[in-house]
Amino acid sequence: MRLSLRFVVPLLVALGIFAYAALPLVDRLMLRWLSRDLEVRSSQIAKTAEDPLRNLVQSGSPDHIPQLLARITRDERLLAVAFCPAGSADAIATPTLPVELRCSDLDRFADPPNDLLQTAAGGGPVYVSVQPVNAGSGVGLGRLVLVHDVSFIARRSSETREYLFFFFVGLGITVALITVVIAQLSWRGWVQGLRALLRGEGLLRPSGKPYVPELQPIARDLRALIRDLGAAPRRPDEDHVAWTPDTLRTLLRGELRGQEVIVVSNREPYIHMRQNGQITVWRPASGLVTALEPVMRACSGTWIAHGGGSADREVVDAHDRIAVPPPPAPPAYHLRRVWLTEQQEAGYYYGFANEGLWPLCHIAHVRPTFRTSDWEQYAAANRLFARAVADEARSDDPIVLVHDYHFALLPRLIRESLPEATIITFWHIPWPNPEAFGICPWREEVLDGLLGSSILGFHTQFHCNNFLDTIERLIEARVDREMFTVSYRGELTAVKRYPISIDWPAPRAATAVPVEQCRAAVRQRHGLPEGHAIGIGVDRLDYTKGVEERLRAIERLFELQPEWLGKFTFVQLAAPTRTRIEHYQQYQARVEALAARINERFKHAAYPAVILRIDHHEPESVYEYYRGADVCVVTSLHDGMNLVSKEFVAARDDNAGVLILSQFTGASRELPEAIIVNPYDTDQCAAALQLALTMPKEEQRARMRLMRELIKEFNVYRWAGRMLRDAAGMRRRGRISHSMVAAARAAL
Ligand code: G6P
Q: Is the pTM of this model over 0.85?
């Protein structure tokens, strides 16, 4: 409005001045036109009266002149007429002649507009025209004075003023309206252009036309300025900063102004189970939980997850919350449990998430199954979690970290209830190519849901690229390959690579039992002699983990290098997972059968070839195996990151042990010092095992040191810190762009 007034007020003032100057001018112009008319008329009357006047004067009957004059007055609708004979000062006139008019004083009426005379009687102005009367052959007989009543001129003039006044008012209003409309339209274009610019879209409308061509020259400068303003205040050595829980806390308190953090995942960090009448706490086998738990300990806040343990309901308060970690550790954050019915869990978790999206996103040759009923439960469960987020949020703009493929719809649902929230979604598993993703019958809904996020993270650049390809192929959105952003429904989602990691130093390192003791304990547990070589595999019993391929490689090693029989045993710790799903049941049966067959084949050896432990293992026990083993084998067929590989390296503070790592894990990009293998190539894997078992200690140390350096530097605090720092930058940019747009709005 203020901006419109800036246009309208000067315009109206200019119009007023113009009108003020124009009115007297118009008056004068009108008078001139009328004088000219009256003059022409008077001359005609004089010509008509000339002959009778001459006759009366020359015939010596001047007494009849007044009658003639009275007739002229009547006929011609004049106010008065007078005849001034030549050489006489006395006028022969009608009685209506104004007293001010004298024959001796007629010269002043020679030029218009002096012909106007204001009569003394207050009868209003009169127009006086003096016309010569000739006696013939150029001899002057006298002068005829014709007096017109021109009070109508005053009336007409005031009417004209009125018309002109209304004309200028109308003109002013019309021009003001046009100005305001054009200003509003142009300004709207500016604001839209500015917003598009702030979203990083450039200055083109979706149609390809510019919002405001005038903005184009400054677009790049403006974007650079906003980026600079929004960028986190960086320390010069920031990328070399050692990320610790304290660094993360400082970031939260500083750049994020103590803003609350809400985390959502399906799997909870602590599961309360009732066993033999006792409540025990389990820590689930989940890379997601392994990574997030230390972050939450540092950040505090609330973790919302499905309460799936048999005693979970018994330990929560009236708001379904419990402070964790459980004693004796001091509580650091809240776990808010969400309850699902059996039917919801079956459709949402077992069905759409794990029979649909999980195989869809992993290249593991298991066909995804999509059922409408599962999809409906998936959507319902996502709505349930969205309500829990809204419940837990203490402000309008919390930072919400949504985790994994269980919650593809959640970012959009949160965005609807908390439009100001900063939503970081992290997809912990791979993202397939567009053809593969296109199989999903609800692909548009899934993408729409995910694009409710402010930031969408993947472990690798390859998965980011796959996601952007999918967006370009399947929905109407603008993808910026330079900035790695997607603009959709007027909102911007940054698609970024954040390779996940683990806690560093390993939480158990301080209290760790020496490696030698771990080696002895593990061998003793399985009845193996001292010096016996041990390989270790730690996985959920999932078909993506390549456990069958691994066991076949062990078998091949014994075939090719039989000297290892009785000297090397492979211990596979396998946590049962998603056991209600048929594919998982079949997989477990196949792995068990394969291990049994291999052991049967090599039963003549003094010690078993394979020890398979399908059971839940607590982190402390797994840690002991990592430290007690000579080689750790990770042969995932497809894995977003794989944290087992990083945990093994973190556990080896003795710089010994060898890691064999599948080339199809995200971790293989970060740990090239591992022996990288193709798990489908059995011979190659067997050769890798041979290489690992015979690797000199010095080489083991060199490789292990490099891998440990990397994990130390790129630990989970850096992973979370980078996401939160990007979120902080985004919030700053959001605030800047809001205030710019609000200022633009207020100006209108
Ligand atoms: C993968 C997923 C996690 C999940 C974990 C364990 O790592 O990315 O979201 O928690 O597997 O699977 P589960 O189904 O037991 O939670």
A: no
